TrEMBL record:
Transmembrane annotation, as ranges: 457-476
Organism: Riccia fluitans
Residue ranges occupied by any Pyrroloquinoline quinone-dependent pyranose dehydrogenase beta-propeller domain in the UniProt entry: 30-438
Top-level taxon of origin: Eukaryota
Signal sequence bounds: 1-22
Keyword Membrane: yes
Listed Pfam families: TrAA12
Name of the protein in question: Pyrroloquinoline quinone-dependent pyranose dehydrogenase beta-propeller domain-containing protein
Key words of the record: Membrane, Signal, Transmembrane, Transmembrane helix
Length: 478
């Protein structure tokens, strides 16, 4: 075999390496990020987790749990169903050899090992009767039951039964000890009320210090005379909450709400706590809501109705590293060429990323994007006050007029998001049936430092050894 053949083989391998280049997402991408469709044609992908082997598990509504993985080296994304259960609707977690997922009444678990890629067996009930205890009322209201697990404790978030319930009985985060699951599962009402007064805390995530955070979807149809009448377009704020207080800390719903943007002259500033008009009485007042011992306010506010459904923190895994070269495009401006792709830069370590599903009852629609919240590594809190805007990462381009409820199929609606061990962000979009991959683009001069060069050399030497293996096997068989 001559040098020409060697060159041809090399080229084939390098072409393979950039096989992960994918379709444009058709939206805006904030520098230095870059977003591509990693997997498509998934029926309503919702909650997302990544196992220790790197397989991506997603709850696909009406299907069950699907595992997806990238073939090395051609980058093709393969998939298989690991749990065929069409009632699973959002929540998913992996912990200690078990895969957990939820329907609107039940939390189930199955035996699971990384890269299993076949039907999970050993199904058990962890929690049952999620709705049946609501003061004798039938199943109603928000249907997702988000799951988060740490140190043997399962946290389950259940949203309100209606827009504004009479009390917070449903709207809570409960915790369950996985070491002592009773036969047949816990009755939901047996859970400890870990945090109270959370209208619909869909997104849950642990930060790099191991503290639990959540993102909350605020109420609709807010009207309050004296504050501008119909103020629902920009109030109440969506919230990012920290659960580090005493067990059972109360976060406001349904009595208190958070100001996002009130008409000038009446507003007291973003983040201010107010009482819900129909529930105000001698006890529940604006002043009552402003007492932190009655009502814990959020750490971050977000645009009303933006609908935060997912939150994750970047732990800095593989930060600032060269990933691969990819044939490139740039949104709305096709450029064909080869571009170097990088993992998230180390400056994002500790930061929170939130998926905003987008509004259904606001004109014009808002949300439909992924945002970043910078965190201070020392304090473990956001670097900016509650009054500041969150930072855009990527999302759907304006105009959003065809989004909203009954949105057209092309409307990108992010649900959940997780970082891979390679420092790449994956985001589900239920409406488009996609998983989007977000990386960083070297052309912004952000990260290619010496460590990146080192990893580029590592990747190249990986190819060279692969070529050597192919060579030796060719010779061996010849
Ligand atoms: C609960 O889930 C079942 C099965 O998927 C579905 O038929 C029912 O409509 C759901 N109920 C609510 C209130 O979401
Ligand atoms: C006000 O409403 C709250 C919540 O429903 C209730 O606990 C409280 O007793 C009421 N206070 C008065 C003075 O009516
Ligand atoms: C981070 O938090 C620490 C401790 O609260 C504070 O001293 C420091 O100024 C903060 N740094 C930034 C960049 O906000
Ligand atoms: C950081 O997150 C990645 C996945 O995003 C995980 O593989 C890795 O174990 C985590 N590292 C630590 C120190 O927790």
């Amino acid at each position: 075999m001559g040098p020409e053949m060697m060159l041809l083989l090399c080229t084939l391998f390098l072409l393979g390496a950039r096989g992960i280049s994918a379709r444009d997402t058709g939206g805006f991408v904030q520098s230095p990020f870059r977003a591509e469709v990693w997997a498509a044609d998934i029926q309503e992908p919702r909650g997302l987790v990544i196992d220790d082997a790197g397989d991506v598990l997603v709850v696909s509504r009406g299907v069950g749990i699907i595992a997806l993985w990238e073939e090395i080296p051609n980058g093709r994304v393969d998939r298989t169903t690991v749990v065929p259960n069409w009632d699973l609707n959002h929540g998913i977690a992996i912990y200690d050899g078990w895969l957990y997922a939820s329907t609107n009444t039940t939390v189930w678990r199955w035996r699971y090992y990384p890269a299993q890629r076949q039907n999970a067996i050993g199904m058990e009930i962890v929690i049952r009767n999620i709705n049946n205890d609501y003061q004798g009322r039938p199943l109603e209201g928000h249907a997702t039951r988000s799951l988060a697990i740490q140190r043997g404790i399962l946290y389950v978030s259940v949203g309100s039964g209606s827009n504004v319930d009479a009390d917070s009985y449903r709207a809570r985060l409960r915790s369950f000890d996985l070491a002592s699951i009773p036969w047949g599962g816990y009755d939901y009402a047996q859970g400890i009320v870990f945090a109270d007064g959370l209208r619909n805390e869909v997104g849950l995530a642990f930060d790099t210090q191991g503290r639990l955070w959540g993102v909350e979807n605020g109420a609709d149809e807010l009207q309050r005379s004296g504050l501008g009448g119909d103020i629902h377009n920009d109030n109440p704020a969506e919230e990012m909450n920290l659960f580090d207080g005493p067990t059972g800390t109360f976060y406001g719903y349904p009595y208190c709400w958070t100001e996002y943007d009130l008409p000038s002259g009446v507003g007291l500033g973003r983040g201010t706590q107010w009482a819900w008009p129909s529930l105000m009485n001698g006890t529940i007042t604006d002043n009552w809501c402003r007492e932190v011992r009655n009502n814990r306010p959020p750490e971050i506010t977000m645009q009303a109705h933006a609908a935060p459904l997912g939150i994750t923190f970047y732990n800095g895994s593989n930060c600032g590293s060269f990933l691969t070269s990819s044939s490139s495009f740039s949104s709305g401006n096709e450029i064909n060429g080869i571009q170097d792709l990088f993992s998230f830069d180390c400056e994002y370590e500790g930061d929170a990323f939130v998926a905003l599903h987008g509004s259904w009852n606001r004109n014009p629609p808002v949300g439909y994007k992924v945002v970043r919240i910078r965190m201070n590594a020392t304090s473990g809190l956001p670097t900016v006050p509650v009054t500041r805007n969150v930072l855009d990462v990527f999302g759907r381009k304006e105009p959003l007029a065809q989004c909203g409820d009954g949105a057209s199929q092309s409307c990108f609606r992010p649900v959940d998001l997780k970082f891979t061990a390679q420092g790449v962000l994956l985001v589900t979009s239920d409406n488009t049936g996609e998983i989007i991959r977000v990386v960083q683009d070297s052309s912004n001069g952000k990260s290619p430092g010496s460590s990146s060069d080192a990893s580029r050399i590592a990747v190249l030497s990986g190819y060279i050894s692969a070529i050597a293996i192919v060579f030796s096997s060719l010779f061996y068989h010849a």
